[in-house]
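Onboarding guide, step 5: your first structure request.
Type a short instruction followed by the sequence, for example:

Predict the 3D structure of this protein.
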Amino acid sequence: MLIVGELINASRKSVREIIEKQDAAAVAQLARSQTENGAGYIDVNAGVFVGREPELLKWMVTTVQDAVEAPCCIDSPDPKAMVMAIARGLDGAIVNPLDARMMGCIVTAEMLIGRDDYCVNYLKAFRAGKLTLT
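The system replies with structure tokens like these:
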């Protein structure tokens, strides 16, 4: 069974205040508490911060991943936020697979940072002259 800790969510007033102040110690404590109680993933959400969500999610992912070994995931509908989090080292995401724009951003980001083996192998083969474009 996969348990996702979902307490680091800006829709909760107390957490929104912690995120606004960028209180890393409080966010780290929330992450540790959830993993100590069985969470295998730590979900982070900054959706109430319209316009600042990408920046805050990047900070949250960094803070959580510095505090615990559990992979971090986000459930943002904002492609910019997702790409920034992936660039920081995001381990997982909760994404609507029918959202073609989001899926395209994720695939592109994964490829650009070298985490998509298929694309990496394709580019290596192309550069080595083993493939040609027609």
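Each response can be followed by summary notes, for example: The mean pLDDT is 84.
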